[in-house]
Amino acid sequence: MRILITGASGFIGFHLINKLLKNHEVYGIDSYSNNYDISLKKERYQKTVKDNYFFFEQNIRNIKLPNVKFDLAINLAAQPGVRVDKSKEYLYRETNEEGFIKFCNFCIERNIKKIIYASSSSVYSDDGEEKFKESHTLLRPKSLYGKSKLENEKYASYLAYKEDISIIGLRFFSVYGPFGRPDMAYYSFARSLMNNEKIILNNYGTMARDMTYIDDIISGVISSFKLITEEKTKFKNEIFNLGNDSPVMVVDLLKEIEKQLSLKAAVIHAHTNNESKYTHADITKAKKILGYKPETSIDIGMKKFLEWCKKYERK
Ligand SMILES: NC(=O)c1ccc[n+]([C@@H]2O[C@H](COP(=O)([O-])OP(=O)(O)OC[C@H]3O[C@@H](n4cnc5c(N)ncnc54)[C@H](O)[C@@H]3O)[C@@H](O)[C@H]2O)c1
C-alpha cells in the first residue's frame, strides 16, 4: 500500500515509518518545527532513508505532493504537549486545529478514503477517579492542547458523515521510549540527572501518568491500520484509547530513573494547574476490536530508553 504520514520525523512518526517501510511505500511530510532540538528530528529522518520512503519538508497547512494514489493517510503532525511558551500557544490553533482541517481537505481532494489521526488523553476530564473510557468519561480538556485535539475529533466526526470515508482517532497516553521527545518529563528528568542539573518537580510529583512504551503504541497503530484497510470495514468514525492501563506517579517515575542511573536528583518544587492530575486508559475497546495488548512495564521500557540515551549520547 501507499501511505501518507505527517509528522514523519517526529517521535511516533519515526517508529511507525520504520515499521511500515518493511511492507509498504511511505510518503512522509514534516515541517521540522522547532518545538525541540531539530537535530533529533533530522537524525530520525536519516535512520528512515530507504528506496520506498519519499520525504517532503512541508507544512500540513499546505501539502503539495506528486499525483500518486494513496491508500491511507495518517496525521501525526502537531504542536504536542500541554506546556509551551505563551508565545507559541497560537500553534495549537494554527497547526493542530487549522492544520488538521487542511490535512483532511487534502485527503478529500486526493480521494483518500481512510484516515487515522493522533488525538490525546488530554481530551478527558480528570475530575473522577475512574479510568478514562471512550464512551463514558467526560471530555473536558484542561489545556489548550487538549482542546485542540478535541476539536480534531469533532471535525473528524463531522467529516466522516459528510464524506464517503472512514476515520480512526487514537487517543495516545504519555508515549515514551528511544528517540523520544526531549520536552517530556521522563526525558528531561533523565537528561537533568545525567548533566547534574536541578529537576523541577510539579505538584510534588503527585500527578500520575499512564506511561505507554513506544513499541506498544506502534502495535496499536498498526492494528488500527489493518482494521481500517480491511476490505469489509464498514465503520465511519471510531476512537480508541491507546494507553498502558497502569499509571505511574511522577515521583515514582523519577525514582525509577534515579535507580537505573544510580544518581540522586536535586529537586526544585513548583506548582501547575493546567495539567491532568492523573491519566489512566481504559483499553477494553482497543483490546476487543484491535487486539491491542500493551506488554512493556515501566522498568523495562525505561531501561531501553536510558540505554538509547547512553548509546546516542542523547543528553
Ligand atoms: N508522545 C506522546 O506522548 C503523545 C501523547 C498524546 C498524543 N500525541 C500526539 O501524537 C502525535 C505525534 O506526537 P510525537 O510525540 O511524535 O510528537 P513530535 O513533536 O515528536 O512529532 C510531531 C512532528 O510534527 C512535525 N510538525 C509540527 N508542526 C507541523 C506542521 N505544521 N506541518 C508538518 N509537520 C509538523 C514536527 O516537526 C514533529 O516532527 C502528535 O499529534 C501528538 O499531539 C503524542
Question: Which features does this protein show?
Answer:
single chain; two-stranded parallel sheet; binds nicotinamide-adenine-dinucleotide; 315 residues; seven-stranded parallel β-sheet; 9 helices; globular; Rossmann fold; alpha/beta
- Mean of residue pLDDT values: 95
Can you list the strand order of the major beta sheet?
Answer: 3-2-1-4-5-6-11
Indicate the overall shape: globular
**Annotated CATH architecture:** 3-Layer(aba) Sandwich
Low-confidence stretches: none
> Terminal Cα separation, in Å?
37 Å
CATH superfamily: NAD(P)-binding Rossmann-like Domain
**Could you give the count of β-strands?**
13
Rg calc: 19 Å
Indicate the structural class: alpha/beta
**Total helical elements:** 9
Secondary structure layout plus pairing:
Blueprint (H helix, E strand, L loop, with lengths): L1 E5 L4 H10 L4 E6 L7 H9 L6 E5 L14 E4 L14 H20 L4 E7 L23 H19 L3 E7 L2 E2 L8 H10 L4 E4 L5 E2 L2 E2 H16 L7 E6 L5 E2 H12 L5 E4 L13 H7 L7 H14 L4
Parallel strand pairs: 1-2, 1-4, 2-3, 4-5, 5-6, 6-11, 7-10, 8-13
Antiparallel strand pairs: 9-12
Helix pairs in contact: 1-6, 3-4, 5-7, 7-9
The structure holds nicotinamide-adenine-dinucleotide.
The site of nicotinamide-adenine-dinucleotide has 29 residues, from helix 1, strand 2, helix 3 and strand 5.
